[in-house]
Amino acid sequence: MPTYSAPDGTRLAYHLRGDGDPVVCIPGGPADSRYLGDLGGLAAHRQLIVLDSRGTGRSAVPEDPSSYRCDRLVEDVEALRDHLGLPRMDLLGHSGGANVATQYAARYPQRLGKLALISPGTRAVGVAISGDMRREIAQLRRNEPWFPSAFAALEAITEGTGTDWEAISPFFYGRWDTAARQHHAAGRPGNEEAVAGFAAEGAFDVETTRAQLARCEMPVLLLTGEFDVNSPPRPVAEFAALFRDATPVVQQAAGHYPWLDDAEQFRTTTAAFLA
Questions:
Q1: 119 in helix, strand or coil?
Q2: Angle between helices 147-158 and 131-138 (to 10 degrees)
Q3: What is the spatial distance between Cα 34 and Cα 31, in angstroms, rounded to a whole number?
Q4: What pLDDT shows up at residue 102?
Q5: What is the Cα–Cα distance from 35 to 241, expressed in whole angstroms?
Q6: In whole angstroms, how far apart are CA 31 and each of 1, 88, 97, 188, 198?
Q7: Are strands 220-225 and 11-17 parallel, antiparallel or unpaired?
Q8: How far is CA 105 from CA 33, 205, 216, in A?
Q9: Closest CA relative to residue 227, chosen from 156, 161, 168, 179
């Protein structure tokens, strides 16, 4: 397992999957990057360089807990690019990792070839996702057997009266089957301090990020699932409008992990963009 040193000396790990031109991948969570797998077979087209964010997976826990903040994680990505000897790189971020990738694009646009944001979090750019939006997406699943209890939990969460996040897990998958249950169990964040620190005060400078993104010229893919209550299609389209050259894509019948719901469709779309 290869490692490198972050700017503050924290030892960070990354994983190499597949062959071909490299694309650096930033997981969400912050959680162990294993949940990304080979991104539905994307590793057959590109070499995936998958970062374990500090304090997760095989990466070390930092001495300074404030370094878990999203904006500070950007420098871990830049240090990885330098370690790999890449003058420019393609970058892929999933979920919360898309916030890191977005801030990287704003800070280091000259270092990027293409940017793929998969089921992207939108906090870095201040795009709000209302409870009504989430409930509207959730209603698309009303014929599922698990829907009544999951929807009740979602309503309570969006209204600020509930915290049963486990109960709404089925909404994050296009199919709540055995594979989805196993993926969910294996992909839960294990470092509560990293999760809490990610969005700490100062993590996001929305106005500055938006202004910098408006000047970015790299091609950007923003792909989300039709059923994704975390990253619904409308806010993701609003996010895409902040870039000069962005393509929003909605993968049908997919949730927050589109490479699991239809690997071929995800792989085809993403590989074509990165080609």
A1: coil
A2: 170
A3: 8
A4: 98
A5: 29
A6: 18, 26, 10, 7, 11
A7: unpaired
A8: 21, 14, 8
A9: 168
Give, as one character, the DSSP assignment of residue 153. H
**Angle between helix 96-107 and 206-213 (nearest 10):** 60
* 79 and 6 Cβ atoms separated by less than 8 Å: yes
Omega cis (within 30) before 30: yes
- CA neighbor of 98 nearest in space, from 224, 193, 219: 224
Integer Cα distance of 189 and 28 in angstroms: 9
CA nearest neighbour of 247 among 271, 226, 223, 268: 223
Q: Please give the pLDDT value at position 166.
A: 94
| 112-118 vs 3-5, strand pairing mode | unpaired
85-118 tens-digit pLDDT: 999 999 999 999 999 999 999 999 999 999 999 9
Spell out, as residue ranges, where the chain has pLDDT lower than 70: none
- Label residue 109 exposed, middle or buried (CB < 10 Å: 0-12, 13-18, 19+): middle
- Write down the pTM of the prediction: 0.97
CA distance 220 to 210: 14
